[in-house]
Design goal:
Belongs to the C/M/P thioester hydrolase family. One of its GO terms (biological process) is fatty acid metabolic process. The active site is at 155 (charge relay system), 249 (charge relay system), 283 (charge relay system). The protein is an alpha/beta fold. The chain has a single domain, classed as Alpha/Beta hydrolase fold, catalytic domain (Rossmann fold). The protein is built from six helices and 17 strands. The strands form five sheets. Strands 3-4-6-5-8-9-14-15 form an eight-stranded mixed sheet, sandwiched between helices. A three-stranded mixed sheet has the order 7-10-11. Strands 1-2 form a two-stranded antiparallel ribbon. It is globular. Bound molecules: glutaryl-coenzyme A. Residues 14-15, 17, 87-92, 94, 115, 154-157, 184-185, 251, 296-297, 300 line the site of glutaryl-coenzyme A.
């Protein structure tokens, strides 16, 4: 698969994104006689297609109350264990992870929350009531098996998942991919509770030798450690938590924050979360074989920033993390063993 995971964008700072999951990702392969710069005649060619909508998976647009989302239902009669999938800063509606999860037997809701259709263009704060509405949508859906739902998120999306697990009922299992466990830049609100943001200081931006910005240390210090008032009260979460950590994450210090989440849980007499750390792995841990995106636009600073990760190690981590996520959801949401098979 190295031919795929080692791909680099022609356009600098461009990230591989699968926007339309109904169209496969196609790579044309050609073997030429000789070498660059003067390759000879074409010896053979092949077409490699990766489906993002596995056979039999159904895609349904969801416009219910305020909820803007897409639901992917696995083949077969159902009901299926349910997952809500949430991305991070930048917003929009990204469906590729949800569609792949549905191929493994999970009814998965790719959930937008800003910068999509009639949702707000920007986000002033994070109101969990919106996410509660999405959770209720899943719970009342006849094809979704209750009594609880799984949550999967990356980065800011992971922190939203950890907040949902802490404040809302009926969350059975939560997976955070490079989340922080902290209310970062915007307050997280639910009814009369509000978690104040920790905030950041742009003077702490570093510029690497390559000229790229490194924002890994811009967040304010977590004074008081796990007792800091900006920490999400993860001890209130009912279901188990899996924290996936890239040890070379340059968006923020994921490994340190995972430690704080663990300390907080233990200080409250709760079970330790499962933490899986991957060396040489950056912020954008995607499904297997997505090429590494070393740097791209970060909406927070409106500049290109480095995300971290070394291509080979990052790719290995993506393969393993995917297996671990599937196995975790199978165990805690009651999927069948077949659905945990790590094939894409
Ligand atoms: C999907 C997009 C790209 C935006 O969608 P959109 O609005 O439909 O996009 P648009 O109008 O076409 O472009 C807006 C801008 O997004 C950039 N962009 C667009 N496509 C790509 C790409 N393939 N690679 C790299 N950059 C891309 C471009 O610069 C676009 O601007 P431009 O058109 O060039 O003016 C974005 O919102 C996104 O990537 N969303 C999910 C991001 C995500 O999960 N990020 C997680 C990591 S970062 C994070 O959450 C940090 C948290 C920090 C904190 O809370 O402290």
């Amino acid at each position: 698969m190295g031919l795929l995971w080692a791909l680099e964008p022609e356009k600098p700072f461009w990230r591989f994104l699968k926007r339309d999951v109904e169209i496969p990702f196609v790579v044309e392969l050609e073997v030429l006689d000789g070498h660059d710069p003067e390759p000879g005649r074409l010896l053979c060619q092949a077409r490699h297609e990766r489906l993002f909508l596995p056979p039999g998976v159904r895609r349904e647009s969801v416009r219910a109350g305020r909820v803007r989302a897409t639901l992917f239902l696995p083949p077969g009669p159902g009901p299926f264990p349910g997952i809500i999938d949430i991305f991070g800063i930048g917003g929009g509606l990204l469906e590729y992870r949800a569609s792949l999860l549905a191929g493994h037997g999970f009814a998965t809701l790719a959930l937008a929350y800003y910068n999509f259709e009639d949702l707000p263009k920007n986000m002033d704060n994070i109101s969990l009531e919106y996410f509660e509405e999405a959770l209720c949508y899943m719970l009342q859906h006849p094809q979704v098996k209750g009594p609880g739902i799984g949550l999967l998120g990356i980065s800011l999306g992971a922190d939203i998942c950890l907040s949902m697990a802490s404040f809302l009922k009926n969350v059975s299992a939560t997976v955070s991919i490079n989340g922080s466990g902290i209310s970062g830049n915007k307050a997280i609100n639910y009814k009369h509770s509000s978690i104040p943001p920790l905030g950041y200081d742009l003077r702490r931006i570093k510029v690497a030798f390559s000229g790229l910005m490194d924002i890994v240390d811009i967040r304010n210090d977590l004074v008081g450690g796990y007792e800091n008032s900006s920490m999400i009260p993860v001890e209130k979460a009912q279901g188990p938590i899996l924290l996936i950590v890239g040890q070379d994450d340059h968006n923020w210090r994921s490994e340190l924050y995972a430690q704080k989440v663990s300390e907080r849980l233990q200080a409250h007499g709760k079970e330790k979360p499962q933490i899986i750390c991957y060396p040489g792995t950056g912020h954008y841990i995607e499904p297997p074989y997505f090429p590494l995106c070393p740097a791209s636009l970060h909406e927070l600073v409106n500049k290109h920033v480095m995300w971290g990760g070394e291509p080979r190690a990052h790719s290995k981590a993506q393969v393993d993390a995917w297996k671990q996520i599937l196995a975790f959801f199978c165990k805690h949401l009651g999927g069948t063993q077949k659905t945990a098979f790590p094939k894409l």
